[in-house]
């Protein structure tokens, strides 16, 4: 695949040259004063993206999966009960992680294409008369299905049940791309990563942690060493790390935050919504349908699209890659072979998205999909050109 072609997977995302240059560093001493001067502001500035004044930001050399594990290990004990809904591949994987840590996982099964069921959470929490549920786990943006859940509604459900459980949110594919309000929603741990909205290479688990979660560490009995919040927070107080940090990624994150703030977070969110809406216009013009079961669930970072009956979505994405050198997301889990995904997050413009839509249209035409060549591109063009002025 040509390096000139953008990727249209929902992460890792395209890396702007400005960020690649920022990470192009010779080895430096991570215990020297100049690293401290860089790292402390990065931790502080990340709080703006999480939407928190009250919480702490903790960064580990890892991925979102490592962030999940850190959230669990620092706040819970073996046998603790957690409540989670399964409605996509990533909520499924978080369930698996909890079960491997010998937690008592209460699962609410949902159809893929739905979001987190606030009412069912409320019912389960009301039924928990002795507060045995220690944490509620929610995937904000389910990357497998292109579904965004309402975290505010989950918080309201917890409050209506008058329940004291911690609230953990996976925002890996939403943070820095869609609004996130950690303090407003009273999220106790928000888990993200460097490779999506922050437009960097994979390698950082970036967590927002509330004071309530920090207090829970005092009694948590699950083992942790590499992911110990206490060790990290103690080192961070002096601007350092308890072990060797991923220095190049931290310098990249500093520059990423500068880019986000220069554009303005509200403008970043509006750009993602506009790009996503153009893709949705194209999907409608193709006569295809999204995996998300209703419009309010539509993600602004990834669209999962069902292929027509009798077609294999894996063949489509392979053909697009082999013939046109462009990557699209495959269907995961229950979506395997049934749907492909268009990632529209990070460093993208409407012009770049149009190139992706044109590429997947050509691939569909090659494979005799019942799609009129140019129909989706035209629909997206009409939307982008009529909304362009206010975004320039």
State the CATH superfamily name of the largest domain. Answer: Type I PLP-dependent aspartate aminotransferase-like (Major domain)
**DSSP summary, beta strand count:** 12
CATH class of the largest domain: Alpha Beta
The shape, in one word, is globular
CATH topology of the largest domain: the name is Aspartate Aminotransferase, domain 2
CATH architecture of the largest domain: 3-Layer(aba) Sandwich
**Residue-averaged pLDDT, rounded?**
96
Task: Quickly count the domains.
Answer: 2
Strand content: 5-15%
Major sheet attributes: 7 strands, mixed
Spatial sequence of strands, sheet with the most strands: 1-9-8-7-4-2-3
Number of helices: 13
- Which spans have pLDDT < 50 for at least 5 consecutive residues? none
Q: Secondary-structure element sequence?
A: HHEHEHEHEEEHEEEHHHHEEHEHH
Provide tags for this entry.
3-stranded antiparallel β-sheet, 7-stranded mixed β-sheet, Aspartate Aminotransferase, domain 1, 2 domains, 392 residues, 42% helix, alpha/beta, Aspartate Aminotransferase, domain 2, globular
Q: Any overview of this molecule?
A:
The chain is of the alpha/beta class and 392 residues long. The chain has two domains: 17-261, Aspartate Aminotransferase, domain 2, CATH 3.40.640; 264-391, Aspartate Aminotransferase, domain 1 (Alpha-Beta Complex), CATH 3.90.1150. It has helices at 17-23, 33-50, 64-75, 89-100, 118-127, 151-160, 211-216, 229-236, 247-263, 265-286, 313-324, 350-366, 375-387, and strands at 56-61, 81-86, 104-109, 133-139, 141-142, 147-148, 166-170, 189-193, 204-209, 289-290, 302-306, 339-343. The strands form three sheets. It has a seven-stranded mixed beta sheet, sandwiched between helices. Strands 10-11-12 form a three-stranded antiparallel beta sheet. Strand 5 and strand 6 (147-148) form a beta hairpin. Helix 1 packs antiparallel against helix 9 and helix 10 (265-286) packs antiparallel against helix 13 (375-387). It starts with 16 loop residues before the first helix and ends in a 5-residue tail after the last helix. 47% of the residues are buried.
């Amino acid at each position: 695949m040509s390096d000139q072609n953008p990727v249209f997977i929902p992460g890792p995302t395209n890396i702007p040259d400005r960020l690649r240059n920022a990470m192009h560093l010779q080895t430096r001493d991570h215990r020297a004063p100049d690293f401290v001067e860089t790292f402390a502001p990065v931790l502080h500035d990340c709080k703006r993206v999480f939407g928190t004044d009250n919480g702490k930001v903790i960064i580990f050399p890892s991925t979102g999966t490592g962030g999940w594990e850190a959230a669990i290990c620092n706040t819970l004990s073996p046998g603790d009960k957690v409540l989670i809904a399964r409605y996509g591949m990533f909520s499924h994987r978080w369930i698996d992680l909890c079960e491997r840590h010998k937690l008592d996982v209460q699962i609410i099964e949902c159809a893929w294409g739905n979001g987190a069921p606030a009412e069912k959470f409320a019912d389960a929490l009301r039924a928990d008369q002795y507060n045995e549920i220690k944490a509620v786990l929610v995937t904000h943006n389910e990357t497998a299905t292109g579904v965004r859940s309402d975290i505010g509604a989950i918080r309201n459900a917890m409050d209506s049940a008058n329940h004291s459980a911690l609230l953990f949110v996976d925002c890996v594919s939403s943070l820095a791309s869609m609004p996130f309000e950690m303090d407003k929603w009273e999220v106790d741990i928000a888990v993200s990563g460097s490779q999506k909205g922050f437009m960097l290479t994979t390698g950082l688990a970036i967590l927002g942690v509330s004071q309530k979660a920090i207090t829970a560490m005092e009694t948590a009995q699950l083992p942790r060493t590499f992911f110990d919040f206490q060790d990290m927070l103690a080192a961070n107080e002096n601007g350092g790390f308890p072990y060797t940090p991923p220095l190049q990624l931290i310098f990249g994150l500093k520059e990423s935050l500068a880019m986000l703030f220069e554009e303005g977070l509200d403008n970043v969110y509006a750009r993602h919504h506009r790009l996503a809406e153009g893709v949705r216009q194209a999907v409608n013009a193709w006569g295809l349908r999204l995996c998300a079961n209703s419009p309010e669930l539509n993600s602004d970072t990834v669209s999962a699209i069902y292929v027509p009956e009798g077609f294999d979505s894996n063949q489509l994405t392979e053909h697009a890659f082999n013939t046109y050198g462009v990557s699209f997301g495959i269907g995961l889990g229950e979506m395997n072979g049934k749907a492909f995904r268009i990632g529209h997050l990070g460093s993208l413009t409407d012009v770049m998205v149009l190139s992706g839509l044109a590429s997947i249209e050509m691939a569909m035409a090659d494979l005799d999909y019942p799609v009129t060549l140019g129909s989706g591109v035209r629909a997206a063009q009409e939307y982008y050109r009529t909304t362009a002025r206010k975004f320039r």
